[in-house]
UniProtKB/TrEMBL annotation:
Taxonomic path: Bacteria, Bacillati, Actinomycetota, Actinomycetes, Micromonosporales
Organism encoding this protein: Plantactinospora alkalitolerans
Residue ranges of every copy of the GyrI-like small molecule binding domain listed in the record: 20-194
Official protein name in the record: GyrI-like domain-containing protein
Gene3D superfamilies from the UniProt entry: Regulatory factor, effector binding domain
InterPro entries named among the record's database cross-references: GyrI-like, GyrI-like_CCH_Lin2189-like, Reg_factor_effector_dom_sf
């Protein structure tokens, strides 16, 4: 049975450096769940738990079938505020809109996801499970940078990234995207690693 680490397959997307850089993000398949609210609140926590439950269930299903063995990919999130520019989340965390994502192998299809959601619901019922779906996301040309430290210190890193975008002749065209390389329950806040990313287009196109 083949063993694949998709962080290595997509190394340029999951190994950002301290210096901002441009990357081309192809269309990829994710398990996704949408929601609104404070990321420290119960709605968000339940959604992420459900997303991980299905992600591990899909992984086990492919391994059991002898199709593929792989580590579950890091959690990712798209963030934006209602009625605002999509590139910045609102200051009021209770109004934050989010789509949480976990990258999936090409072998995953909608039927496997539906089967896994149903099996997960039988073991650990959750209202969030019915909102999980397989979704394709294509960001295309993007700018990204690695942020090291607490989440609340991200604005300075984000400002550096936005300055790089402007200086490179681009403008932001997508939502604020975060990729969580560290587990916040097991990693000291000052050592947390998070990739910040925005889809971009040429400013000359305006």
């Amino acid at each position: 049975m083949p063993k694949t680490d998709f962080k290595k397959v997509h190394k340029n997307l999951y190994a950002a450096g301290a210096a901002p850089a441009l990357v081309d993000v192809p269309e990829l398949a994710f398990l996704a769940i949408d929601g609104v609210g404070d990321p420290d609140g119960p709605v968000y926590r339940e959604a992420v738990e459900a997303l991980y439950g299905v992600s591990y269930g899909v992984r086990f299903g492919l391994k059991r079938a002898g199709v593929l063995e792989y580590p579950v990919m890091p959690l990712e999130g798209l963030w934006w505020g209602a009625g605002e520019r999509q590139d910045l989340p609102a200051l009021d965390r209770s109004t934050w809109h989010w789509t949480m994502l976990v990258l999936q192998p090409p072998q995953v299809d909608a039927a496997l996801v539906a089967e896994t959601v149903a099996a997960t619901a039988r073991k650990r019922p959750s209202g969030s499970l019915e909102r999980i779906e397989l979704r394709r996301v294509a960001e295309g040309p993007s700018a990204q940078v690695l942020h090291v430290g607490p989440y609340h210190d991200e604005p300075a890193t984000r400002d550096r990234l936005m300055a790089f975008v402007d200086e490179s002749g681009y403008r932001i065209s997508g939502k604020h995207h975060e990729i969580y390389l560290s587990n916040p329950t097991r990693t000291a806040a000052e050592k947390l690693k998070t990739i910040l990313r925005y889809a971009v287009v040429s400013a000359a196109a305006d």
